[in-house]
Write a structure and sequence with these properties.
single chain, 615 residues, eleven-stranded antiparallel β-sheet, four-stranded antiparallel β-sheet, 14 helices, 28 strands, 32% helix, globular
Amino acid sequence: MADTSFQPDPPAHPRYLPIAEHGLVGDLRSVALVGSNGTIDWYCCPSFDAPSVFAAVLDAERGGAFELAAAVSARTKQFYFPDTNVLITRFFTEEGVGEVQDFMPVGADPAGGGDRHRLIRRVVCVRGAVPFRARIAPRFNYGADPHTLRPVDGPDGPLLFESPDRCLALTSTVTLECAGPDVLAAFKLAEGETEVFALDQVDGTVAPRGCARAEAEHEFNATVAYWRRWLHQSRYRGRWREMVHRSALTLKLLTYAPTGAIVAAPTTSLPEQPGGERNWDYRYVWVRDAAFCVYALLRLGFSGEAEAFMRFLTTHISPGCGDASGPLQIMYGIDGRTDLPERELPHLEGHRGSAPVRVGNAAAGQLQLDIYGALIDSVYLYDKWAQPISSAQWDDVCHLVSWVCDHWDQPDEGVWETRGGRKDFLYSRLMCWVAVERAVRLANRRGLPADLPRWLACRDAVYRRIMDRGWSPRRGAFVQYEGGDVLDASVLMMPMAKFIAPTDPKWLSTLDALTGELVSDSLVYRYDPEASPDGLRGDEGTFSICSFWYVEALVRAGRIDEGRLAFEKMLTYANHLGLYAEEIGRTGEQQGNFPQAFTHLSLISAAFNLDRALG
């Protein structure tokens, strides 16, 4: 048995870890962010977009956290158990080495309901002896709701945290001490000894239950086996296997198994600029992001996720009559809901004081025409690489294409969701072209009924419009919007979408212009906010998806050595676990919500195409 009489010094005043100093674990319903210091400072229960239980990453004082660490001075290192999403945080002390193994068991049927969903933290001493301390301090509903704490089934039973809308049960193999609304523990482990903490959401169907050491061992092995079985489907055998597979495992963690939804990121309001206002809630399904995820996962051989997302589209967001923003919203809730009202939480100070903290997203009502191209392209690839789409799905595609043919030439808010007014963005035109062009291809390949004369006329009209009005002779480049001279990294998609040959003189001139103005040591800015005001104050970092698009553009243009060097440089900006946020700051720090699906799917695509070019 572990020595539980050890009394540590009181924990230090909580501080903010950098965004990059985190890993994550999940069960295909939600995730927990685990800091390199062993603290869980972000966890929403029971789903990605539920109110937080731990949110110290957004407010160190009021957010709540699950601290578990060596009780003495220690160096720490984190890694993933190979080929899994089981996270290990190691503590190197003067007297020994201990580790915390964090994981969330995935049910035998991840898409099913009614299973027990729990967060397990297993503490192991692997060398010598190590004292540990724990503090479990949930703060329900983003720190706004009070809770009570009481034991269940006697003094040695589970402890119940009860708030008005949520109830969590904490069990452990060590002695737990109630301290007001929180729980403390202190224990010392000798080499080979293990202790366990388990946190369950409990309700009418799931009762509190302990987690003995043997059960934790069984759940650990089952979780490892699940992730390895899933990853075994990958067909990628290229040069960057570890990074590509970590990206794939991360994308899988961002899927919501009950519906097949894929969230853009599992966090809200991590700042794109420290101290700035560019703080958004990304815990929703962006049609664009999810469609690109389908492409990346299909490339690697993961057809099940593509099938689940197609089912999500069919079940939850089949196009209806549409409203002012078109037959599709740009984003949906993970359950398919359309109402995502945005509000601020003024009682939270924000990560390192970066207010406001927002939940919900007002951009849901924007018009972003590019989503139709991203979606129909993913349908086209699913039909080509996975299995033929159904007749009902084809009817939906036809409805979408018909709407695009009627509305492609109107201004919109664009791919970057600017809040500075609508413009005739080139990228929106480009993806409208993709929507129609891929539908034409699909109809011809499958012999499906379609209004091909109308579609072909529309496709060609969009092409001519881009070539005539999207090209700036003065800049010698394709530009952000019609009639302007502002450069925008989104045009890097032009050769990737097969709109223009990657060696076309106009494209090569554009690539040179982008390199000269928006690229900094392989890192790519989306655009210059001063040249193209987006309705928001402050600057932002380089956008990592654009940096990986830049790699692909160089490779497709035949500049393979440059592309490979840019790719290798981008890999150095990953965190210690191979994870990326949305942006990278001036000194290499991760900025924005974390981890970001967009970044990881673009890494997969860049690696795949770079491998193919290198042979």
